[in-house]
Specification:
The chain has 2 domains: 73 residues, Arc Repressor Mutant, subunit A (Orthogonal Bundle); 155 residues, no CATH class. Strands 1-2 form a two-stranded antiparallel ribbon. The chain has 232 residues and is mainly α. The protein is built from 12 helices and 2 strands.
Amino acid sequence: MEQVMEAKLYKGVQNDLKKKIERGIYPEGYKLESENSLCEQYNVSKVTLRKALSNLIEENYIESRPRIGYFVKAAERGIYHLSYSLSNVLNTYISDEEILSADFGGRKGVNEFEMTKRYANDDDEWIALEQIRIVFRHTLPGEKNTEKTRGYYKRHTEDILSLAETKKMTLDVSFGDEAVCDALEIFSDEALLRVCEEYYDEYGKLFAEVRAYVPSDFAEVRASNKRKESVF
């Protein structure tokens, strides 16, 4: 029980610091408060705090400078994180021939050769976008609401939730890349929420929380895109 409580504490600290970094509250190069100050702020022990900071170092959010403190790392760690997550989802769905052949080619008029070519060119965002749309907006042909369909969703929920987490990275990495914006903006779609809630209610709240602030994030991304375009 004590270990469970400890895990909740350090993950809470870790997630809060991560959000502040991702949203620019703690910008690149920012020096975090001292350990004593952070312990007081989060009401945790140094052991708990250091576990959270250690995880953030592993995830490339911050770096430790001996005898100086902890500093926010450069934002390219977000590019790696997003690319990895999209590729992970892509590799999950690319192997599901039922989905690819039954729906993807038919809706988009893209044959297997063209899709393979896109995949070979590392067009991860474009394919990931299509795969997520297929999985959540279309059940398998002729098998609506069957055990097989529900099983398919259930097997891949964790992958989708992992991708959903990347929504918080968009302000760091998506400038000028509309495909990534589109892929992540799917999570603000009402149809996605209906599908999610239909197949397993326990994930409905998570997606509702995602949807709550994604639209404003994307508005900010696109506004920044336009500002950048006007400069060149």
